[in-house]
Automatic annotation (TrEMBL):
Annotated residues for binding of heme: 462
Keyword list, A-Z: Heme, Iron, Metal-binding, Monooxygenase, Oxidoreductase
Family statement drawn from the similarity comment of this UniProt entry: Belongs to the cytochrome P450 family.
Protein name: Cytochrome P450
PANTHER family linked: CYTOCHROME P450
Length: 515
């Protein structure tokens, strides 16, 4: 094993050189020496020079004010299916590939502790600014190597087990029902539009749902008297996303100079940490009062592992579990609203299981909703929350005929490929049928297993996948069971892309109550 200090996000990384692999029995898919020696050198990868990139992002440049998705599209148009974007202002270089064979090589060679560049500010805040709170634990999003593996192996049995997560279904359904009733109170009778900012309302639903899972607590955001601490947490969470994009994604000088804006960001981190910690301590004393019992909630189960792991997991769930589920839910609703025949088919499935609008959703009946599941999958194919998946190579690899040394950041551009007919026939159509097992739709299925990864892939796949699926499926069930939904926006739903891809602009649905 060799330690390479450079290239990565301030994390020295244990990489496997070609010599290390030869002298060990490590079970990684191997590429031959001949393949490596025949490949073109890393520095011959196409891509803009640093100077060119700076020029093009400045006013008047080709890439000025374009979002991440559009920037990637323009770069691919110019440089082809593999190119290198050199790091600016302390950021690392990133290789972009749009070749599914490369995705396969990457995932088959990621090892048991895949490395994905984390948010640099997370580690700084948790490890340097507040070590007394976090005790050296960075959390899943930003930890690497064995430190990541240790946390992940402890939380996997809780978070990745569908049965454990679905123990929360009844409460998640109550939250979805409350959301639906609140929507009804904001519906303009006759016109069926909603008098509110729909994105904000769905974000409230997502916050209420994930805080129930993470903190075992209802925040009351739908009522007239929401918990003040909860409102404060929600406000800080939303600020966190805006600021993280500035300091974790865009080039920034903060590692060298702490500007007043960065200091503000640290205050946001402090607020989130302090409020979360106070909720956890409240829950801990409640548990102590109740005495020893079998752990029921996700939080209780996490606390049984370790209080510090519970804290970082709760914070990571709150940070990763609001905009992701809110944005995906809106995308699913949009796809259903603009494809009324698919909406009808889904409603038929739901009505069979829930004969009355408010019939309870149970772990039993929710198992039999293949079309609902297929709608979510298809929506995530067309509009995932990230345009691709990121990994750092832990050994030298040949990608698209180029030598990519261990320690290189690689972005696999899954989304644009999943939206071409080459990999998904009739890719521009919303066809949930392509995900059904017993459907005569073999010709619609994916042509390559690596061209669909909305929750990532391998040991580092999204830990919140089960939670997200349960929450989104429950919300869609309640809305489709109670309303015919249509889209009345003048244009198609628009998206902005920063930390994640998120609906923006005019979000205009009509909710017509079902008789
Ligand atoms: C539709 C909703 C969601 C989508 C599409 C999504 C997608 C993703 C993706 C693509 C990754 C990177 C995986 C990889 O690198 O292979 C990820 C990681 C992660 N997600 Fe999600 N996510 C969603 C919801 C959630 C929720 C609800 C939570 C919290 C309960 C969550 C927590 C996390 C965490 C903690 C990680 C880092 C995992 C690790 O590095 O070990 N996500 N997610």
């Amino acid at each position: 094993m060799t330690v390479r200090p450079s290239r990565l996000d301030n994390h020295p990384i244990e990489v496997l050189t070609r010599e290390d692999i030869k002298s060990s029995s490590i079970p990684y898919a191997e590429q031959s020496d001949t393949e490596w020696s025949r490949a073109l050198p890393y520095n011959s990868l196409p891509g803009p020079s640093r100077l060119r990139l700076i020029k093009e992002v400045l006013p008047g440049g080709k890439y000025c004010n374009v979002n991440m998705m559009e920037l990637n599209r323009l770069l691919r148009e110019t440089y082809g299916d593999i190119y290198l974007v050199k790091g600016l202002f302390g950021r690392e270089d990133t290789v972009f590939t749009y070749n599914p064979h490369d995705f396969e090589i990457m995932f088959r060679n990621e090892g048991i502790w895949p490395h994905r560049v984390g948010l640099q500010t997370f580690n700084y805040y948790r490890k340097k600014k507040r070590p007394e709170v976090f005790h050296g634990i960075g959390g899943l999003v930003s930890e690497q190597g064995k430190a990541w593996g240790d946390i992940r192996s402890k939380v996997n049995p809780i978070m990745m087990k569908s049965q454990t997560i679905r123990e929360n279904l009844a409460q998640i359904d109550v939250i979805a029902q409350e959301f639906t009733k609140r929507l009804e109170s904001m519906r303009i009778v006759g016109d069926n539009h909603i008098k509110c900012n729909f994105l904000e309302e769905v974000q409230k639903w997502a916050f209420e749902s994930i805080s129930f899972i993470a903190l075992n607590k209802r925040m009351g955001l739908f009522g007239d008297n929401p918990d003040r601490k909860a409102l404060n947490l929600a406000e800080n969470m939303s600020l966190f996303f805006q600021l993280s994009y500035e300091f974790d994604v865009k080039p920034s000088v903060w590692p060298y100079v702490q500007t007043p804006a960065f200091k503000e960001f640290l205050i946001v981190y402090d607020n989130i940490t302090n409020i979360t910690l106070s909720y956890i301590e409240q829950e801990m004393s409640e548990l102590q009062r109740r005495g020893i019992q079998e752990a029921k909630s996700v939080l209780e189960k996490l606390l049984k592992i370790d209080k510090h792991i519970a804290l970082v997991m709760v914070m990571d769930m709150l940070m990763a579990g609001i905009d992701t589920t809110a944005s995906t839910s809106i995308s699913v609703l949009y796809m259903l609203a603009t494809n009324p025949e698919k909406q009808l088919r889904l409603r038929e499935e739901i009505c069979e299981l829930l004969p009355e609008p408010w019939s309870p959703l149970t772990t039993e009946n929710s198992k039999n909703m293949p079309y609902l599941r297929a709608c979510l999958k298809e929506s995530l194919r067309i509009m995932p929350i990230t345009p691709g998946n990121m990994r750092t190579t832990i050994k030298d690899l040949v990608l698209s005929g180029y030598q990519i040394p261990a320690g290189s950041n690689v972005l696999m551009g899954v989304m644009p490929l999943a939206n071409t007919d080459e990999y998904f026939p009739k890719s521009d159509k919303f066809l949930p049928e392509r995900w059904l097992k017993n459907e005569k739709s073999a010709e619609l299925k994916s042509k390559n297993a690596f061209v669909y990864a909305p929750f990532g892939m391998g040991p580092r796949t999204c830990i919140g996948k089960r939670v997200a699926e349960m929450e989104i499926e429950t919300l869609i069930t309640r809305l489709i069971r109670n309303y015919h939904i249509s889209w009345s926006g003048k244009e198609k739903l628009k998206y902005e892309s920063n930390i994640i891809t998120k609906p923006c602009g005019e979000i205009k649905f009509q909710f017509e109550p079902l008789r």
